[in-house]
Amino acid sequence: MSEKKQKKPSRQQVYTLLVQVGRKDGDGLPEGATGAALMVYSSGVDEAEAVRETVAILKQADMAPLDVTGYGTLDERLEQGHDINAEERELMDRALAENAVIVAQMTPFFEDE
């Protein structure tokens, strides 16, 4: 008689990160942009892993990550009083389900701003 192996509960959580990127050939940023800010949802067992995964993915996408600011997990953000809408929660759920890095928003920077 074989027992089904019970699946361990995942320790993965989704972290909200703000990533600043510079310019690099092939980065896909608009012409004239000096860089961009990316709002990212990234899964990881801790924030450090989420940051490492995000930086690796962005480098694979020919982007030049310069700085990462972590805003914590959904629960941590709620404790801080952040207002998190349904669309944002959906993207977080997707990042967790797919064990993925999801760029939710990109804001390019221009010299004259």
Automatic annotation (TrEMBL):
<protein>
    <recommendedName>
        <fullName>Type II secretory pathway, component PulF</fullName>
    </recommendedName>
</protein>
